[in-house]
Amino acid sequence: MHPVLFYGVPQGCSFGSIVALEWLQQPYQLCRIEMLDHPWDRLFGRVNPLYQTPALLTDGNQALSESLAILLHLASRTEASPLAPRQGTRPFDQLNQMLSYLVTDFFSAFSPLWLAYEKDDLSDEQRALLRRVGQEKVAEACRYLDGLLAGREWLLGERRSLADAYLAGVARWVTYHRLFDLATDYPGLARYLDRLASDPAVRFATAIEQGTPASGCGALQGHVGLEQLRDRLPAG
Fold first, then answer.
1. What domains are defined for the chain?
2. pLDDT higher than threshold 90 for residue 39
3. Is the CB of residue 226 less than 8 Å from the CB of residue 43?
4. For residues 5 and 87, which has the higher predicted lDDT (pLDDT)?
């Protein structure tokens, strides 16, 4: 059996897990979750009781959630992973540090912006305050990444990693929220993201998310629905 990644649309951070799977070239299947459809299918609650994506059904039919856990699990399935150094080494600690920063500080910087975008009962003043706070937090995060990328090709140096795969999904939110001109304000980060956007795996993940014809590395073994997975899901 192949692992199944449950990915959310639109603009889900699960995008990065698709990129990682393509880079790893491991066979996998996808299950699409429309995040704006409510209520969500109760079967998904057997995968993640919090009803959040990404989530993973492993090839051993174990449920796993949270991007950090999913990415590290995927990379550990091969003895010499191209996206993660050997556990216990200094480079592995650096990867964990970068991933932890991205899934906490960088991700949470957008929380005020998503709140302003999604809540209908806010006043104009409340919405403006949330956008201002969010813009300040995202700007601080972008400054950090911009400085980091000034002298390197990838987040951890000369070799791409799980951190780059994850950032491919979340960094899109800067443009989505129209916060500032990346090319002008953060040129190092802008160059990095432009190069990342042209990567075949990122283009593939974009097409998958948009529901348009996609040509990947051949690892994707198709989409499956929740009902098709019923017998594999953990007991509810």
1. 4-82+200-232 (3.40.30.10), 90-197 (1.20.1050.10)
2. no
3. yes
4. 5
